[in-house]
């Protein structure tokens, strides 16, 4: 079952108001809602978000195919629901934690950004894996509707961390914050995604059986903080 269901239910209410999902779905028992959402995510992870088969989703969820059409209107409506749920949940998390991270000293902020994100992601693994498939599958529609808004929220968080650190005199006054935030954003993705999507670690080689993630992260933060110092 998906955790943080109170937050997900709030998003479902918003999506109902936006016409993405019907009142019938919103009125379902939360347990049934969770089963259906998990079935959508499982199907998306197996086939890719753009290749969701609504009949297979019905089989996974143990509901009639007609019920899914009643909840979402069409296969496209079901895909729109899953993408909107993913985007709203992930971007709201960054919106919530951005001010707290920016208030921390730079080393703590960068460490917390990544370790906190990985810990939170473990509670939302289905949605994170859904986002990962969208990010690496290369579908142009999902790239704009799912990947870009979440990546924008990530990059903005890093920008505000750097901006606050610059204001405290922790980093160079002449630093190009926009360019630095984009570079660190790319670096953090490589570190984090190697742990969330282990097949990427074969390429990024962040960890091995004898080299834990904490060592790689500590070295990465040391390099960043040292390079940004006045």
Question: Could you list some keywords that capture this structure?
Answer:
about 230 residues; mainly alpha; elongated
Characterize the largest beta sheet: strand count, sense, and whether it forms a barrel.
none
What distance lies between the first and last C-alpha atoms, to the nearest angstrom?
48 Å
Q: Kindly state the number of beta strands.
A: 0
Mean pLDDT: 90
Instruction: Provide the gyration radius in Å.
Output: 19 Å
Note the total helix count.
12
Low-confidence parts lasting 5 or more residues at pLDDT below 50? none
Sheet/helix structural class:
mainly alpha
Q: Give the CA-based shape.
A: elongated
Characterization of the model:
The model has no long low-confidence stretch (mean pLDDT 90). The longest helix is centred in the middle third of the chain and has 28 residues, at 75-102. The termini are far apart. This protein is mainly alpha-helical and 230 residues long. The protein has helices at 5-17, 23-26, 30-47, 54-61, 65-72, 75-102, 106-123, 125-137, 140-167, 177-196, 201-204, 213-228. The protein contains twelve helices and no strands.
Fold topology:
Layout: H1 5-17, H2 23-26, H3 30-47, H4 54-61, H5 65-72, H6 75-102, H7 106-123, H8 125-137, H9 140-167, H10 177-196, H11 201-204, H12 213-228
Helix pairs in contact: 1-6, 3-4, 3-8, 5-6, 6-8, 6-9, 7-9, 7-10, 7-12, 9-10
How would you briefly describe this protein structure?
The chain has about 230 residues and is an all-alpha fold. The protein has helices at about 5-15, 25, 30-45, 55-60, 65-70, 75-100, 105-125, 125-135, 140-165, 175-195, 200-205, 215-230.
